[in-house]
Amino acid sequence: GSNFIAGVFIQAMNKKMSIYDAMMRGLLTPGTALVLLEAQAASGFLTDPVRNQKLSVTEALAAGLIGRDFYDKLLSAEGAVRGYTEPYTGLKISLFQAMKKEFIVREHAIRLLEAQIATGGIIDPQLSHRVPVEVAYQRGYFDQEMCQFLSNPKNQTRSCFDPNPHENLTYLQLLRRCVPDPDTGLLML
């Protein structure tokens, strides 16, 4: 999965910038910036579109790609790929299992799962590969109720604000409005 929103491109200035930088300059709302960065983290890494680098959340903080204000939330989102450590057993568990045990709030988990689906499929933290929703259900990654919920496009969260036409969109809808960066091929809002 690499078809995620990597940054913001300002056509009038022919300038690209990171999502966090765009938020700091008032081009994105903090809520949209967080959702876009969580989607990157839930896909495996954060992207610096200016330097074309892929970084872990901890590396991104050290490099100044994100601020301390988003760090804990993005670490949690990164767990969607790497798995979450079950505090009582020390075992690695999936995003859905963490949600069921109430380590992750349901709405947050759904947003992360939607981002994974939009960028290539549900990530198995044990095997580090992506599978379609139906296959994830068949393998027991989540229950039938969650499978049906995630499979219905009407249930997608409209958590992304597109600053161009001023609309609230799903991550997938916003993703479809992006343009590829001619230098890197990364998708830019």
TrEMBL record:
Transmembrane segments: none annotated. GO terms for molecular function: keratin filament binding; structural molecule activity. GO terms for biological process: intermediate filament bundle assembly; wound healing. InterPro entries: Plakin (IPR043197), Plakin_repeat_sf (IPR035915), Plectin_repeat (IPR001101). This is Epiplakin. GO terms for cellular component: cell junction; cell projection; cytoplasm; keratin filament; membrane. Keywords: Phosphoprotein, Repeat.
